[in-house]
Task: structure prediction
Amino acid sequence: MKPNIGIPEKHLQQAAEKLNVLLADETILYTKTRNYHWNYEGDNFMEMHKLYEGQYEELAEHIDGVAERIRMLGHHAEGRLKDYLELARLDEPAYTTNQDEQLKNLVNDHETLANLIRKDIKEVDGLGDTGTADFLTGLLRFHEQKAWMLRSYLK
Result:
């Protein structure tokens, strides 16, 4: 049964498509953060190991939230890695165990997502989907906060 929430189906589909791209981006960022958690090397290993763990755990919650929002709109959430790699706007750089490189990569991704989400908010709001715009606003704040926290480790 399709949702009857006052938004035309065409607009629900457009919002769901945007959210599926975001779901792919969030999954790439989650995987990158998890990779850094596993492969960090340095004298502050435990601090970075725990920092990355906390970040990927929060990302996992947001990934679930994006997928659930897509379902609320009456559409299916992408769930295959192959599809994520095709949809994602974020990339996966070469492996690194260097703290500064890892942090710069993560800061860049969080800031990139903040900028992309800001545009998505305007577009879904233009579709009359205030609920998705509000959901994305919370996600925007999350990425701005994580970028700030990670930047604080850089000189």
